[in-house]
Amino acid sequence: MSGKLIIEVEDLVKHYDEVRALDGVSFSVYEGEIFGVLGPNGAGKTTLMEILCGLRRFDEGKATVGGFDLIKDSYKVRKSIGFCPQETLLYDLLSVRENFAFAASLYSLSSKKFKERVEFSAKVLGIGEFLSRRVQQLSGGMKRRANLAASIIHDPPIVILDEPTLGFDPNIKREFWELIKTLKNHRKTVLLSTHDMYEADELCNRVAIMDKGKIVALDKPHILKETISGEASIHIKVKDDQIKKALKTLDKYDHMVRDNEVQIFVTNPWEIMSEVSNKLISQGILTEKIEVVEPTLEDVFIKLTGRRLTEE
Amino acid sequence: MNPIIGIAKKDVKTFFREKGTVFWTIAFPVLMLLLFTAIFGREIPLTANIGIVDSDKTPITASVISGFNNTKVFNVKAFENKTEALEALKATKVHAVVTIPQNFTFNLYTSTANVSLAVDETNPDVARLVRDGIKTFFSEFYKQFYNETFHRNYTEPISVVEESSVTHQRIGYKEYIVPGVLCYPLLFSSMVASTGAIVYEREKGTLKKIRASPIRPLNMLFGKTLAALFQTTISILIIAVLAVVLLGPKINWNIPLLVPVMFLGSLNGIAIGLLISCIGRSPQEASGAATTVGIVLQFFIGMYFPLEYLPEYLQQVGRFIPMTYAAQAVRDVMIRNAVISDIFQPIIMLAVSAVILYAVGVPLYKRWVEKE
């Protein structure tokens, strides 16, 4: 990856008493990319995001955001970022426009610029229809959209999103992904934390996989999947009482059991799928499902940590 | 827009859209105003039932009884004998028993006439009022009797002539309480609003958003102070209008003198609220503490009754509360027609205490805002 360096983090360490929440985290984010930090709950994602927004101090390391040192130039850092946390931080009794006006005032936005930005939010982020409505009257999806719009009302070059789609239903999540892509189209650099592998896969140019305060892998999603997880695998679902028999039958292949499915890792899954199927049939094992599945970032995470992303 | 104005506007809008909060912020002091005026501001303090045992039974004693009835203060119940009357007193059916002995009329003409008085002492305040009322009645009765019998004016050995009041008007309780209740927003709108506004941001999580922006903690404090000042001003104005409409007190509305007193009083209230919000370990604790402190302090600052009503040690507590000086100055202006030089001392006290409270509160507040 090349281009202008926008965020640079070097050996960041953060403790909460005895717990090492960040354990030497380093990465760089370049201008115009969507950079994802993927990890399960408790991996240290929110701590990292909040440190980069100036909300938390760190114990060791160095970080620059927008070319400004996080400690020495915290005022300039905060001016150049738009932070959208996982919770909706709007005032329920104010209208969406009034919330925007308040957010704009925090950045001393001129009224001309404010009008432009409200128009942008209305057109590009689809806020127009509920600009005058009080936040308490909005649906969850509308609130989150307004929340995102409020956090970038000052047109910052860098947008930091901490689990922006947490708790969304799939449709709203997809809608929100489009908004995030729109930000990229408007030349924003986006740093995004998520525990949703599909979100990271769909949106991010590069992904840092985080676990227990450390970055365990970092690259483009497809490269991570290819190099760490390997090629596609065969997923076989059999009746619960036949799993043991199936495992014995398929013993010669590299395999594992997950969600009552036997997964076989081979370099040429399409070629040996019929061979696997025949073997099972010959042993009298009925398959409910047999398919070739492309690897996901979840597979990458499992390969690296031995745990699933959604495990606590 | 300037961030200080932005914060102030947001806080004011949020406050005034909480209809219930606004209503109770205004309703509570107005209710207290009406309640205290109703209790302490009556022209006739009470109507007392008295029992009279007339053992003399002359036209003079009959005129005593009718005289009591005509006062409208006393309802007279006649008893045939003293035992029966005292039983009624014990049963709290009457507040006092007056016994007119035989030869009362004769003694009145010839020497000194006595009546005996027994008062229900179970309520000291009522007992004092009844006792004083009965004594005053007999004093006035004797004057009238003397004038009619001897056809010349009775003169007291020493006559106390009351001069016109130094305030040039007689002050009723409503004139006393209205300036006090005008100070109510200094405690509640200022103190509770500033605590609430600050604590709310953390509770709701919006402090995160503010902290991630380039606004400095002091600017946020200025914004919150401005909003609390505005809320306090509106509360004072509404209470003042309602007080005039409901009670019509005859007081001096010297706005140029009242404004600086109220302004300094509000700053003190806001600063105390700031301290409470920073000390409270949780938003609930801070809000509860601010409300409790406000409720308790209102009885220490001479809002509803003079500070002198309190025991000496509680008066000392009152003297440490800045709003006491605000209430004193407001009352001086509104009742005693004070000029600027008369209220110089309370103004200085308010200014000094505001400076001290902010000097302590600002570092605590900054630490609180930056707390992770």
Main attributes of the structure:
heterodimer; A: 312 residues; alpha/beta; Rossmann fold; Alpha-Beta Plaits; six-stranded mixed sheet; 28% strand; B: abc type-2 transporter like fold; 2 domains; four-stranded mixed sheet; elongated
Total strands of chain A: the figure is 14
Output the structural class of chain A.
alpha/beta
End-to-end Cα distance of chain A: 33 Å
Helix content of chain A: 25-40%
Helix and strand sequence of chain B: HHEHEHEHEHHHHHHHHHH
- What is the CA–CA distance across the termini of chain B? 28 Å
Helix and strand content put the structural class of chain B at mainly alpha
Q: What is the CATH topology of the largest domain in chain A?
A: Rossmann fold
**Average of the residue pLDDT scores of chain B:** 86
* Total number of distinct structural domains of chain A: 2
Characterization of this structure:
- The complex is a heterodimer of chains A (312) and B (372).
- Chain A is an alpha/beta fold.
- Chain A has eleven helices and 14 strands.
- A six-stranded mixed β-sheet of chain A has the order 6-7-8-3-9-10, sandwiched between helices. In chain A, strands 2-1-4-5 form a four-stranded antiparallel β-sheet, covered by helices on one side.
- In chain A, a hairpin with a 2-residue loop joins strand 1 and strand 2 (19-30).
- In chain A, helix 3 runs parallel beside helix 5 and helix 8 crosses helix 11.
- Chain A is elongated, with a radius of gyration of 23 Å.
- In chain A, 42% of the residues are buried.
- Chain B has two domains: 3-40 and 172-370, no CATH class; 48-150, abc type-2 transporter like fold (3-Layer(aba) Sandwich), CATH 3.40.1710.
- In chain B, strands 2-1-3-4 form a four-stranded mixed β-sheet, sandwiched between helices.
- In chain B, helix 10 (217-247) packs across helix 11 (255-279).
- The longest helix of chain B is centred in the middle third of the chain and has 31 residues, at 217-247.
- Chain A binds chain B through residues 50, 53-57, 75, 78-79, 81, 83, 85, 87, 89-91, 93-94, 98, 101-109, 111, 114, 151, and chain B through 1-3, 5-7, 9-10, 13-14, 17-18, 204-206, 208-215, 372.
